[in-house]
Amino acid sequence: MRPGLALPAALEPGDRVAVVALSSPVPVDRLDAGLAVLRGWGLEVVEGRHLRAAHPDLPYLAATDEERAADLTAAWLDPRVRAVLVGRGGYGVPRLLDLLDWQALGAAPPRTLVGFSDVTPLLHAVVRRLGVAAVHGPAVTGLGDGDDVTRDSLHDLLFGAEGERVLGGLETVVPGSAEGPLVGGNLALLAACTGDLLPADGAIVVLEDVDESPHRLDRALTSLLRSGWLDGAKGIVLGAFTRCGEPDVVRALLLERLRPLGVPMTAGAPLGHDEPNLAVPIGGAARLADGALVVDVRHGARSAR
Predict the structure, then answer these.
(1) Residue 96: which residues within 8 A CB-CB, separation 6 or more?
(2) Which candidate in 23, 50, 136, 208 is catalytic?
(3) Is 223 a catalytic residue?
(4) Which CATH class is domain 16-161?
(5) Active site residue: 23, 50, 55, 117, which one?
(6) CATH topology of domain 165-296
(7) 197 and 229 Cβ atoms separated by less than 8 Å
(8) pLDDT tens-digit profile of 156-197?
(9) Between the CA of residue 113 and those of 94, 109, 230, 242, 263, what are the distances in Å?
(10) 273 an active-site residue?
């Protein structure tokens, strides 16, 4: 398997992790249930200042852009924090990308970022700008009310030994094999933030989405294709497309737009807004073959804090 980027050092019981709200307001009951899971793993949990807040004027945001960006920065620069997890997705991360001091973030020891959906462009930005893999995995609310497989997957990726993780039993849509770094995430966010993304050239691309009608999925795919971002991709992995309309129509659309790329493609990966939502390293090495996505998990050296 071609080498990819390593995640920051594996977590150990007693480590401090920060939970921040970067997108929409976080439901308190689901948040508290997810925080209890993290504490049950033996972690010390610190809450971002605006984790339980709401924007004074825009109800779809957890706080102002400046407040949410400041919470992420404070968590990242806390010398005791080993990982930063998001409370939930929704919308708001694209508004933060230009407010972050990437030089300051890069000067700090690496932390593991965990999130998906709205967090997709931030995962890419961390990998591209800071040179470490990030985790496409459940938000904290998804730990509280999610299934055991989802929780165990994230725990294993954060705490577990290095080695290959196999997501098997996938449907082969276009046969073949491919190797490359794993990129991608939420289709709508990828299409909206092409300037912030890791290159898909030479990579295996994961695509998933939720609550997007087929014509909106078509628009996002068409934007990605016309931008040239998908040029040179080595393989496509289709995850869940949850509540996106008639499944047969969604499937026909995805295949009609993506088959012409002529690369191996699988469908039905347990990644996205359905359960389970397995954790995988964006920027890490991956292999696609025989109805399976195989990801290589490596961790950096653990440093004193």
Answers:
(1) 22, 65, 68, 69, 72, 122
(2) 208
(3) no
(4) alpha beta
(5) 117
(6) Glucose Oxidase; domain 1 (3.50.30)
(7) yes
(8) 999 998 999 999 999 999 999 999 999 999 999 999 999 999
(9) 16, 13, 24, 24, 30
(10) yes
